[in-house]
Design brief:
Layout lengths: L1 E3 L5 H13 L3 E6 L4 E6 L7 H5 L4 E4 L11 H6 L8 E3 L2 E3 L5 E5 L6 H14 L3 E3 L20 H18 L3 E5 L5 H7 L2 E4 L7 H8 L5 E4 L6 H12 L6 E5 L20 H8 L4 E3 L1 H5 L2 H13 L4 E5 L17 H18 L7
Parallel strand pairs: 7-8, 7-14, 8-9, 9-10, 10-11, 11-12, 12-13, 13-14
Antiparallel strand pairs: 1-3, 1-4, 2-3, 5-6
Helix pairs in contact: 4-5, 4-12, 7-8, 11-12
The structure holds phosphoenolpyruvate and manganese (II) ion.
Amino acid sequence: MIIMKADATPTQIKNVIREVEKHGLRTDVSRGDFRTIIGLIGDERKVSFERLAMLPGVKEARMIETPYKLISKEYAKAAGEKTERIVKVGDIEIGGDEVVFIAGPCAIESKKQLFTIAEGVKKAGAQILRGGIFKPRTSVHSFQGLGGGGEDDAREALSWLREAGDKFGMPVITEIRGETQVDLVAEYVDIIQIGARNMYDQDLLVSVAKKHKPILYKRHFGAGIEEFLSFTEYMVAEDNKDIILCERGILPLGKGKSYTRYTLDLAAVPVIQKETYLPVIVDPSHAAGRRDLVFSLSCAGVAAGAVGLIVESHNNPAEALVDSQQQITPAELKELITACKKIRRAIGDRHNGG
Ligand code: PEP
Ligand code: MN
């Protein structure tokens, strides 16, 4: 990391970047209000920090020890930026004073279904609308989401999502399953979701990041925290820092009857918030896999410091084409939101581990 002097000129900054690039590294330039920070992307051992420190306009040049430096609190601090980033989506602030609730069906099934649910979740207090179009499914025999029907069907479903969001005043989010869907989805949504199964897809991360839209990035169910954060840097290295991290449960232990679909790793929430400046939310629905546990896990997630929740909600959960066992009704969502807001008030500033 190179910290430039407050009065460093654009030419001096350019020179430093050129010097770094000469050694085969890339840079992440963070222009704060008071000074510019240049982060190094690549093998830092190839450059001499002593030499960089002597270049005109440089205040300090040093290595950051953490493996995921570009998203570390230390990096934000050096840039004079806040150590808790707020991701803005319209007038909604993820990581701001209020807990943000993202809700909607696991999968969009029809225009009518989507609009009914959108109205319901809006009334319940959700601020952002979710709806799956390209569903990652274990079996090829299962409903793949309307996107499975081809590009025309996907476009139609995306236009409903956009229309529902505009009608009810909610930004919208949907998951992208592969690189071929990036351009299409980015045309319609406010936040692009990268699902747990794709956490490790570097090429997908890079192409989504290049759209410069906020990204909801889910932890893979088998990924350690360090891996999750390291892969996050692939997006930040494309100059996109509007990333919302999501804990959605890791593989459960034990044989025989399983009680939950995954195990919600609650400690990951404050741990990640201590390590990085990015906001962390919780997905209680996929973690639980059971409707009757969604309320408890939501409360626990907010108590652990999550700045938001993504909750699957359906007007008729029993009939849902995907994940029927874990979706809750808008009425249940309302109770959950009321309780979570109270919890957030009770913990106050402690939500960010402060
Ligand atoms: C989803 O949110 O629709 C989803 C499939 O979640 P995950 O990637 O966490 O399994
Ligand atoms: Mn689902």
